Amino acid sequence: MSSVEEPSRPDGRVRDAARTRAEILDVATREFARAGYDGARVDEIAARTRTTKRMIYYHFGGKEQLFTAVLERAYEAVRDAERRLDVEHLDPVAAIRRLAELTFDHHERHPDLIRLVGTERPADERIARVGSPALEVIRRVLAAGQEAGLFTDRVDAVDLHAVISSFCFFRIAHRHTLGRDLADPARREHYRTLLGDLVTAYLTTGRTDP
User: Which of 8, 11, 52, 115 makes the best surface tag, with the fewest CB within 10 Å?
Assistant: First the structure.
C-alpha cells in the first residue's frame, strides 16, 4: 500500500478515512449504475468527490476493485434487509407473500443495485460467495408449509428466491421495454399484489408430485 496520506481539510485537519471511502462509494455507485463498468470513469468519480483519482486508487487499488467494493456494499444492504425479515409469526402462505412483498419493496427502493447487477463484468469471487439470509427463512417457511400439506414439494428455497427476485429485477431493469412503464407508481400495488398471487398460487397448486 502506498504511503500517500489523506488530503487535508482547509483548516489543516486530516479527513476521516472512513468518510472518504463512503463518499467515494456513494459517487461510484451512481456512476457505475449510470454508465456501466466500461463507461464509468475514475476521473469522473474523483471530480464528483472532494478527493483525487490518486486517492481513489490508494483506497481501493483500481477501477475493478472499486466496482467490487460498490457491489459488496450494495449486496450487504440487501443482506441487512433480509436479516431483519420477521415472518415467523405468520402462517406459511402469509409468510411467503410477505417475503415476496419485502423483496419487491427493496428492489424498488434500490434501483442502482439492479443497474449494477446488469453490468457485464466477471463476478469477483468475493461477490460469488455472498450468501442470502433470506434463503434460510424461505427454507423454514417452505418446510412448514410442506409439512402442513399447504405447499407443493416440487420447489425449494433457491427456486423460490430466484422466481421472486427475477420478477422484481425485470420490473425495474426493463420497466420501459414492453410499451408500459412497469414501475409506474399508479400500478405499484397491482404488481406487488400480482407477485404475491403468483408465488402463493404456484406453491399451493399441485401439492404432490405425480
Answer: 11
